[in-house]
Specification:
alpha/beta; about 15% strand; single chain; about 375 residues
Length: about 375
């Protein structure tokens, strides 16, 4: 059994219609509850909830402070390679885009790690393009022990792997994996994933199950906002999260909100999400699930991040570079996508502290003594 069987019970069009059919009465009913279900989430996600955003924000902020206190976790992506064997319409690393390709050597990785340690980071997200031969398990085996020697908490966002491979990476220090489905609509998925292993919708959908079965500490979910109707996509993310928490309660989970950003290829979003609607989505997730980590990246602007993070966000990236070697040697032509918040980590930290929050530079530390 996996989430695939649960996903097959759902109908995209029926869910979309049910979200847009929600009324103000449905919204008020959801807001008055102390514990909310997925049907309440539909109401909070719907257009009918937009006039109640202030109430949602206040409740979301209160729940977040109650569960997480006045803390904000900081992490940073470390891009190891932009090699990719997939053709995806929305990604600057797509194999069809003409850009310089680079995979960091162990010496170059150490230079990157040393640069990040100067910024106090102890929570790093390793990112590569999806290229299983040149940036696959052999490469990961060769570099993870060195990277782990610098950082206590290590996450990855790479191609989906086999269950046994995740188990092996866990022994090398892997703590967390981000695996975004991109879109839960199979027809839309096929339109944007044209060549390569990433065309396999089902295999990607079952990746969180494989991760949870080997006891990965944290699993990150999300949909790329803009590929299809964002409200319906977000319901599927919430449904996926609900299944995982009930089935694999030993792991922790996080949700991200990546909106399409400019990149080589220039795909235009099919579904536009305004800043106000992103606030609505963040608050809706928090009202549904008081304990899940909600993560906001440097895809979003400085002003937006500073105003929104107290409402429900628990983790933020800071100082991000989206190209291999970006911290020791900035080369923008290698970028996966353009970021919006270009402040240094110290500048972001200062802004967070100015709002009364403590910055947490590492997530969690596994005890290896046993």
């Amino acid at each position: 059994m996996s989430y695939l069987q649960e996903w097959q019970k759902l109908d995209w069009d029926d869910i979309r219609l049910s979200i847009y059919a929600k009324t103000e009465q449905d919204v008020q009913r959801a807001l008055q509850k102390s514990h909310r279900n997925l049907d309440d989430f539909k109401a909070l996600l719907s257009p009918a909830a937009e006039p109640d955003l202030e109430n949602m924000a206040q409740q979301s902020m209160a729940l977040t402070r109650q569960r997480f206190g006045h803390t904000m976790g900081f992490f940073i992506p470390l891009y190891l390679s932009n090699l990719c064997a997939n053709a995806c319409t929305y990604c600057g690393f797509s194999m069809e885009n003409k850009l310089k390709r680079r995979t960091l050597s162990l010496a170059e990785i150490e230079a990157e790690c040393q640069a990040l340690k100067k910024w106090q980071f102890d929570n790093v997200l390793l990112v590569t393009g999806e290229h299983e031969t040149k940036v696959g398990m052999a490469y990961f085996r060769s570099v993870l022990p060195t990277i782990k020697s610098y950082f206590h908490y290590l996450s990855m966002e790479v191609q989906p792997l086999k269950q046994a491979e995740y188990a092996e990476l866990k022994t090398l220090g892997l703590d967390s994996v981000m695996v975004y489905q991109e879109t839960y609509h199979p027809k839309t998925y096929a339109e944007h994933h044209l060549r390569g292993n990433k065309t396999d919708f089902m295999y990607r959908l079952e990746t969180p199950d494989r991760l949870a079965k080997v006891g990965i500490d944290k699993i990150g979910l999300g949909a790329l906002i803009g590929l299809d109707d964002w409200r319906t996509e977000s319901f599927f993310v919430a449904h996926h999260l609900s299944y995982l928490e009930k089935t694999y309660w030993q792991s922790r989970y996080s949700i991200s909100f990546p909106r399409l950003r400019p990149c080589t290829g220039g795909l235009q979003p099919r579904s536009i999400m305004t800043d106000r609607q992103l606030v609505q989505l963040i608050c809706a997730y928090r009202l549904l699930n008081p304990h899940v980590d909600l993560s906001l990246s440097t895809r979003e602007s400085t002003t937006f991040r500073d105003h929104v993070f107290p409402l429900g966000v628990t983790q933020m990236s800071a100082g991000s570079k989206t190209q291999p070697g970006g911290y020791a040697n900035d080369q923008r032509e290698l970028e996966q996508f353009a970021i919006s918040d270009e402040r240094t980590p110290f500048e972001v930290a200062e802004s967070v502290r100015a709002k009364g929050f403590d910055v947490v530079w590492k997530d969690w530390q596994r005890d290896y003594s046993g």
